[in-house]
Amino acid sequence: MALLQISEPGQSTPPHEHKLAAGIDLGTTNSLVATVRSGVADTLADENGEHILPSVVHFADKDEILVGTPALSHATTDPLNTIASVKRIMGRSVKDLATLEGYLPYKFIDNESHVPRIDTAAGAITSVEVSSEILKSLRERAEASLGGELIGVVITVPAYFDDAQRQATKDAATLAGLNVFRLLNEPTAAAVAYGLDQQAEGITAIYDLGGGTFDISILKLTKGVFEVLSTGGDTALGGDDFDREIASWILNQAKLKATNDHQMMRRIMKEARRAKEALTAAEAVDINVVLNGDRHFESTLSRHQFEQLIETHINKTIVWCRKTIRDAGVEVREVQNIVMVGGSTRTPYVREKVADFFGKQPLTNIDPDKVVAIGAAQQANKLAGNNPEEDMLLLDVLPLSLGIETMGELVEKIVDRNTVIPVTRAQKFTTFKDGQTAMRIHVLQGEREKVADCRSLATFDLTGIPAMVAGAAHILVTFQVDADGLLSVSAEEQNSGVRASVEVKPSYGLSDSEIETMLKASFQHAEEDVHTRALIEQQVEADRVLEALRSALAKDGSLITKEEFAKIEQAKSILLSARQGNDGEKIKQAIKSLENESEAFIARRMNRSVQQVMKGHKVEEFE
Amino acid sequence: MNIDLTRNYFELFGFAENYAIDQEQLAEKYRIFQAELHPDRFANASEQERRISVQTTAFVNEAYATLKSDLKRAHYLLRLSNIEFNADTETSSDAEFLMQTMELHEQVEKASHTEQPFQSLQELSLQLKQNQQDLINQFEKEFNAHDLISAKDTALKLQFYERLTNQVRKQQEKLEEELL
């Protein structure tokens, strides 16, 4: 519900002030930041007029971290300290790295922690820190061009990102000092950019072919609610394959084999890429490249030849489209819109094959490199409250099933994939030995039946179960997934009331204290006082709490008892005076006690909203 | 949890406890709930309000998913009528039905080895859908007639078809993966 805005002199913000918010596309190869200005969403350029920030970070030294194009120039001369494609290792464990497709040209440090650390000249660096540098750079760009601090951002993630990968992305944002309104699925953002959320209803396919990855997502829109019905794709398929096909064609024509001559191979790849891009508009392109020694290769590649070269790759994407559409439980002809995302969708043959398969033309008029960031910016603008008349909602689903380990190293699913989030699910388990007093709960994510084939997210113990015969204990395990797709789990033995719970931090994710240490280090680095930062954060949260309470009381004061009101007032005045001081910890405590006092009232308000919808009234009618 | 989430799902969405429900009305009401309660509506609110919003929305989502699914709604109605059962371990006691299930299992196995496996599986899947629809109609009749014992048996049969449909789907996926 929209919070009622009441302005008290000198206390609350004027209702019409535009709040600064941004959308961030944190991509594997490139990243972008966009914002809505004067009602129009567009990406923001750096001081050189460049919109695209290559997702590359160069760590030469603790005091010299380069991001983007300047970092890219070190890629060949200093490859071990130049980190690219870090998104591929976000939320991955040391063990996962070995199974990742594609070669990672970095030195990883063997350490106790499960979090992979890359050995650089600036020290041991995690993927979260690398991403955080990219986010910081985008944040600085946005704040410089908007002239103020961002109050919140929407960051996009692939729809299939699991809990660990989402958590790592959020950690990177925390480290970059960003307030995340929401992690938004990339395909949803693309659909928003095309204004498909404004349509009454329909099925949309998002076809995203980047340099190295392919994703297809099927979304369903019904009266302002977006659901991701299914996703599919291939993490090793993209426009780079087109380049490689042309390169091998050149080698073939020149009667050469792929060699260790990296210089020559690089020249050929460069020429291949140029040819591919030229063939977007031209029917044929002249190829001219220096081979080994003084040998030149000259030829012409027609668009038709090129299309034959890339046919199998495109066909693979079409097979994925068919499979993903069936996963969604819809028919191909029911798909009303096809949105093209990613630079490789500029290739006319890709568009043609996609149009053939779906039986209609795909949408291509927004720059396919920018479309995700633009949609994210529009959503950030709405969540910041800059667009109150629009009440569109984006609903997401859980990308992969969640479950726990049971006997025989099998996984018992508790929440199925594609369940709309937020979601809470509970399942009962029991003990299998007489007198068993503890139970280890192993949380997993994935579709397969065996523990070894799923992703291990966390392990925790429920201890202190009274000794009973096997099967007598009733252990209720509850999963809760929030709107960002992040999980928390609790377990309770129902006869004795013994409880245990965890915020699921993936076993190989960063702990809160590790993040805090990194945060401190980064502030020392920036010569900023970490206490000042913490104090400001608590002050902001205090203002938020007080403002929320003020408007809640103004609107629903009738839902509160005299005693509650008195207690809340008392807690409020304690918070107000703490807010004037400079002790962050004290403010935190005061917020906590105010929240304790008002918990019942806030819950009652939410309950009343539920009741009003039950009665068939919109809450607006009561305002 | 302080919020009252013990409410009956049917009551929550304004339906009587009948098996037949108006899916459009269900979806419409769900959207209104989401519009009022979803955490995105509380992006600028306090942590506390966001947490309570997550809990409430999760409850509404669960209720919606239960009512929307023909199978889950059947199970839920039986539970409300104090008919407890474990759909994962119990099966129907109808001997003729059990014979049929064995045949169907065989058909699924065979379908992927025919000349045109995609088409065979597609046909089988359509037939399963039809059988499910028949059972849904049957459940409705039995439940309305308060014949809960028969209704439970029908719900278990539905559960079987659900599993078999998933199996057909897995076969289809396997075939497609071979094409990739």
Short descriptors:
A: 623 residues; alpha+beta; Nucleotidyltransferase, domain 5; Substrate Binding Domain Of DNAk, Chain A, domain 1; 4 domains; 5-stranded mixed β-sheet; 14 helices; 29 strands; 36% helix; globular; disordered C terminus; B: 180 residues; Helix Hairpins; Monooxygenase; 7 helices
Question: What can you tell me about this protein's structure?
Answer:
- The radius of gyration of chain A is 27 Å and the shape is globular.
- Chain A is α+β, with helices and mostly antiparallel strands and 623 residues long.
- Chain A folds into four domains: 21-186, Nucleotidyltransferase, domain 5; 239-309, Actin, Chain A, domain 4 (Alpha-Beta Complex); 398-503, Substrate Binding Domain Of DNAk, Chain A, domain 1 (Sandwich); 529-622, Substrate Binding Domain Of Dnak, Chain:A, Domain 2.
- Chain A has 14 helices and 29 strands.
- In chain A, α4 links the parallel β11 and β12.
- Chain A starts with 20 loop residues before the first strand and ends in an 8-residue tail after the last helix.
- Chain B is an all-alpha fold.
- In chain B, 72% of the residues lie in helices and 0% in strands.
- Chain B is built from seven helices and no strands.
- Classes of the chains: A alpha+beta (623), B mainly alpha (180).
- At the A-B interface, α8, β19, β23, β24 and α12 of A face α2, α3 and α7 of B.
Which class of secondary structure composition applies to the elements of chain B?
A: mainly alpha
Ends distance of chain A = 10 Å
The CATH architecture of the largest domain in chain A can be named as 2-Layer Sandwich
Overall body shape of chain B:
globular
**CATH class of the largest domain in chain B, anyone?**
Mainly Alpha
The helix/strand order of chain B is HHHHHHH
Shape of chain A: globular
Kindly report the average pLDDT value of chain A: 85
Largest sheet of chain A: 6 strands, mixed
Which regions of chain B contain 5 or more consecutive residues with pLDDT less than 50? none
